[in-house]
Amino acid sequence: MPNYIEKRARRWYAALDIPKDVHGKRRFFQSLQTENESKALRLAAPLVAHWKQEIDHWRGDDETVIEARVWRKLIHEERDPAQRELLRDAVVDRVDKIWQRGAPPPDTRDEEGDPLTMKEAKSQSTTWADADKFGKVALTDSIEIDEHFEEWLADHDVSEKTTSDHRRAMRDLKERFDIPDEVDRRAASDFVRHVLRQRLAPASINRRLTTYRCYWQWMVDRGYLPDNQRNPWERQSVKPREGDEQKRRAFTEEEAGALLASLAKQTHKYPDDLAIAELMAVTGMRVGEVASLTVDDLEFTDEAVWITIPEGKTEAAARSVPVVNKTVASRLKERAQGRGEGYVFQAINGASKENGRESAYKKRVARALDKINDVPEIVANHSWRYRAVKLIEIGGDIERHIADYFVGHKQQGQGLGRYYTGPNPPKLLRAARKVTLPKVLS
């Protein structure tokens, strides 16, 4: 269970993320008081098992599965065949009691007046689904749906981002199903239509389906699932419908703050990343504009640090932008001292290549954002710009063309002459004061 331990300052900690559907804190985290990885794994196992039981208890709808797991463990660990059969008989009795608890009265008849068949009685029982699940978990060798997931991940040499995508896909599946036997063709299709389709773009859904499809086939190949069991995820896919096109949007304050907090944890390794993101947050600058920023482009005044952007992605990109936030202005001054005409952010790309200096930064921020969520309309280096415009517009006393100038945006159908005849410093300063750092970190 290597994903359940983390090393910090030479010591190992047990860690378990709490699913989003469970309210409260975001994760369990506890020191194991050891620097030995093997010992940490042994110590973490009972902790993680206990935490998972707590999560199931918080959800309040998995008590049947929790009890069934106990029975399954007792049966599997019993070495005496006779005692093992007695345990199985006890489970059968328990299954009968569960479904009978919600069964229709014995004298219930169908529409033609005939006594109900067993199949009809079970279909009318409000507890048959729980009973059926209990029996499958306790009596069969059915594995839990994520029981071998980490083993599958370990068999695949993929990037950190892809691994994160796989784990997120499994968390979504685990919230709906407990064992693979529950996932037949119809259940898989319903999961796609009624769960994934409601909150994800087609491209994101198809990535999840690839995870499920490959994981299922791997379990069959390894003998964890029967050879003759059809992969329920085969030929499951989603095609974009009209209106499915995802438009980029601004960060919410919570999302923006979470991203900056994530980057703050990496300042020892990437000292410029947080400062770059904060500058983009208060100016709406493009990442390429920040990456090519030199000390000569900065002008320090009592009111602000004025940034001159001589050229950029579009004709509208050439502009002057004030930075009034004291934290961001202070970071700019620190980096400008003693650097002559060099780049302001010299560590943005590690190797400090002049061409494509921002590429490594983009990848790092994408990974950080991916750990927060994978909402397709949020793209870090663009969502800052939309957030800046949104904050300026919320003020209500600044014209839209000032907001467009502030972020270097040209609206379709409008010429530059309307608002690029020259910057208006007082209005730009007013706009800059509205584009604050996220409130959670201000």
UniProtKB/TrEMBL annotation:
Region: Disordered, residue numbers: 100-124
Superkingdom of origin: Bacteria
Domain Core-binding (CB): 143-220
Keywords: DNA integration, DNA recombination, DNA-binding
GO MF, one annotated term: DNA binding
Transferase found in the keyword field: no
Keyword match Transferase: no
Cross-referenced SUPFAM superfamilies: DNA breaking-rejoining enzymes (SSF56349)
Domain Tyr recombinase: 246-433
Family annotation (Pfam families): DUF6538, Phage_integrase
GO biological process per UniProt: DNA integration; DNA recombination
Family as reported in the entry's similarity comment: Belongs to the 'phage' integrase family.
Protein name: Integrase
